[in-house]
Amino acid sequence: MSKAENLPTVRRGRPKVVEYEDRRKAIVQGAYSAFLELGFAQTTTAEVARRASVSKRAIYEVFANKKDLFATVIKEYRYLFMDLPRPEGETLSLEETLFRIFRLDISENEALAREAILKLMTRESVFFPELSDYLYESKAIHSREMLMEWLESEHEKGKLTVEDSGICAGMLMDIVFGALIPRKWVSEIEGKPQLDAEGRRHQLEVIKKRIRMVLRGINPTA
């Protein structure tokens, strides 16, 4: 047997996969910080490349354009505001499940990150309606549809009475996200201090009370 035959087999490919994932993660993180600080319009691929410590070419090897990068950032962080789909065989009460779906008991740091992402999404969607459309088309955002599926599933199990899952899902999302964003914006505009940790806790308790009220309507035994 020759020496060449005694050499161990060299497996190829894995390092490149790891390198790709690491580069992608760095780009998404760089874009996240840039979009939050500068907004969509003022964020350039050059700035993202600088923050991610990669070349502009590396960005285009992973993402088609800036809209694709923005959608990916939103998709990466959407876990902060909706926890769907739910685990199979979940035995929690409807009330507790909805609290978990809307992540009403997250940490203070996660709450701050959620506020930043929600504000970014809403602000940029106002300035760039086509960006909002793209988020839905690319399924970076499809929380309403997922919530509708959950409501319909619970209806089929006899746990809820939902005549229109779309209206019910929209109402629940308005209750939660309508309370999470505007107060902070009003405080900023009026020059008032933003909500502190205690203020956020009170805000979440109010949201929980509203969800309980909705549950009484769609689940009289709640």
Summarize the helices and strands and which ones pair or pack:
Blueprint: H1 3-6, H2 14-42, H3 45-52, H4 56-62, H5 66-77, H6 94-101, H7 108-127, H8 129-137, H9 143-156, H10 165-180, H11 182-189, H12 197-218
Helix pairs in contact: 2-3, 2-5, 2-7, 6-12, 7-8, 9-10, 10-12
Features:
222 residues; Arc Repressor Mutant, subunit A; 2 domains; 12 helices; Homeodomain-like_sf; DNA-binding; TetR/AcrR family transcriptional regulator; transcription cis-regulatory region binding; HTH-type_TetR-like_transc_reg
Short structural summary:
This protein has helices at 3-6, 14-42, 45-52, 56-62, 66-77, 94-101, 108-127, 129-137, 143-156, 165-180, 182-189, 197-218.
Q: Can you walk through the features of this model?
A:
Residues 44-63 bind DNA. Residues 21-81 form the HTH tetR-type domain. Pfam families: TetR_C_7, TetR_N. The protein is 71% helix and 0% strand. By secondary structure, it is mostly helical. Helix 2 (14-42) crosses helix 3, helix 2 (14-42) packs across helix 7 (108-127) and helix 6 (94-101) crosses helix 12 (197-218). It is elongated.
